[in-house]
Amino acid sequence: MSAHTAQTELKLLGKLILEGTLHCETGLHVGAGKGSMEIGGADNPVVKDAFGRPYIPGSSLRGRIRALLEQSTGMAVPAEMVFVSRRKGQEVRIHQSDRPDDEICLLFGRTPGRMERVTGDALEGGSASPSRLAVFDAALDLDSITPQMRENLDDELTEVKSENAIDRITSQANARTFERVPVGARFKTRFVVDVLCEEDAPLLGLLLQGLRLLEDDALGGGGSRGSGRVRFSDLKLVWRDKGYYSTGKAEQELAAATGLGELQVAVHEKGSAFLTA
Predict the structure, then answer these.
(1) Strand, coil or helix: what is 25?
(2) Per-residue pLDDT tens digits for 23-35
(3) Helices then strands (H, E): number in the chain?
(4) Which of 30, 55, 131, 172 lies deepest, with the highest CB count within 10 Å?
């Protein structure tokens, strides 16, 4: 847990900006929902922007990172989880507590008010805790879809993966198709961590832990069937203190790394020195 207490005063000290490249190591399916299905298209299309280009919503990245961190820190258990939605068949449970040193709630924010726990008494949240982390939509690098790749794709930028669900009694096959961004595609990622007090500095390490967990897990749908393996590279971390926004002071580059492991080492060595640099 962090060094935050109920008396910790919050005011913006600066922002940590982490940018990098997300590589698709296998096909990636971040679904758009069946409401956008086209005639003759895949049963499960990927989400696309107004120009018809696949992208990764910041909400998908943020939600997956949060879920992995909740699991790895032991917070994905009934006593630590609350209902965000209780609609039948669409229940959503996330971790939330009223502990001021709860790093998950500090990084991702805390909702005030009464919330039903999965087990135990209701959580009576007294006050909101602002989210420190903003995750932006990741745009597709069009140059990563090469002419050779386009020749073998089902669409200009995507492929269609066919699957069969087999009935265990009759052996009847139920065909279904998924649209995927192909192996080799790259997306431009951007994460921003607001540092509202000196105690916030270690939250960057929690974000990096979540990104490393994601590399050995899956993003989007079909992860247990081979989709969604990703890798991060070409990472750059900068610090913009209040002077950057008020007087035009230059940003400070804290680290540049080819991968997350290298960046974690650099951040660990730097510690919170950037706050006083």
Answers:
(1) coil
(2) 999 999 999 875 4
(3) 6, 13
(4) 30
Q: Which two tokens stand for residue 198?
A: 């000196």
Q: Is the pLDDT of residue 8 over 90?
A: no
Indicate the pairing of strand 14-24 with strand 230-241: antiparallel
**CB of 53 within 8 A of CB of 85?**
no
Nearest residue to 200 via CA among 70, 73, 105, 106:
106
pTM equals 0.91
Interhelix angle 260-270/203-215, rounded to 10 degrees, is: 170
User: Residue 16 pLDDT more than 80?
Assistant: yes
Closest residue by Cα to residue 49 from 63, 30, 64: 30
CB atoms within 10 A of CB 48: 17
Rounded distance between C-alpha atoms, residue 56 and residue 48, angstroms: 9
